[in-house]
Amino acid sequence: MAPSHLEKVLREHIADGQPRTHRPWKKIIVVVEGIYSIEGELCKLPEIVSICKKYKAYVYLDEAHNIGAVGKTGKGVCELLGVDTADVDIMMGTFTKSFGSCGGYIDGSKELIKY
After folding, report:
1. Which end of the chain has fewer CB atoms at under 10 Å, N or C?
2. C-beta neighbour count of 21 within 10 angstroms
3. What is the widest separation between alpha-carbon atoms in the chain?
4. Dihedrals φ, ψ of 64, to 5°?
5. pTM of the full predicted structure?
6. Cα(115)–Cα(86) distance, rounded to whole angstroms?
7. Bridge-partner residues for 58, per DSSP?
8. Cα 52 from chain centroid?
9. pLDDT tens-digit profile of 72-115?
10. Which long-range contacts (CB under 8 A, 24 or more apart) does 23-29 make?
C-alpha cells in the first residue's frame, strides 16, 4: 500500500468509525513487512511512521525477512532506512532465517509485552 493510500484509508476509517456502530476506533494498528517476501520490495517505513504518528496509529513491523540481512550491522529495515526503533510500536521476527535457529521474538513497550 502506498503511503498516500494509507493516509486516505486512515482518514476514512477515523471519520467513519467502526462499521456497524460508527463508534471511534480505540486503537488502529498498521501492519507492514520490512521486506515483502514475494517482490523483495522494501516498505516505505519512514513515510508510514510519519503518517501513523499524524493519525495516532500504531506501527507493527514484521522483520522476518530482513533482520540479520539488511542494515549496516544487520539490525533490519529500521537501521537501513534510518528509522528510530522507538517509532515502531511492535516489532516481530524469526530466528529461523538469518540466525539458523528456531523460534522468534516480539518487541514492544513493557506495557504491551505484559498485556
Report:
1. C
2. 7
3. 47
4. -55, -35
5. 0.88
6. 19
7. 29
8. 10
9. 998 999 999 999 999 999 999 988 877 888 888 899 999 888 87
10. 27/58, 28/55, 28/56, 28/57, 28/58, 29/57, 29/58, 29/59, 29/60, 29/89, 29/90
Tell me how far the alpha carbon of residue 94 is from its chain's centroid. Answer: 15
> Would you say the C-alpha torsion 81, 86, 89, 93 has a positive or negative sign?
positive
Task: Classify the C-alpha dihedral 60-65-71-72 as positive or negative.
Answer: positive
CA atoms within 13 A on the CB side of 99: 17
Residue 53 near residue 83, CB atoms below 8 Å: no
Q: Which cell numbers hold the place of 24?
A: 471511534
The closest alpha carbon to 88, from 111, 115, 62, belongs to: 62
In this structure, what C-alpha cell is assigned to residue 7?
493516509
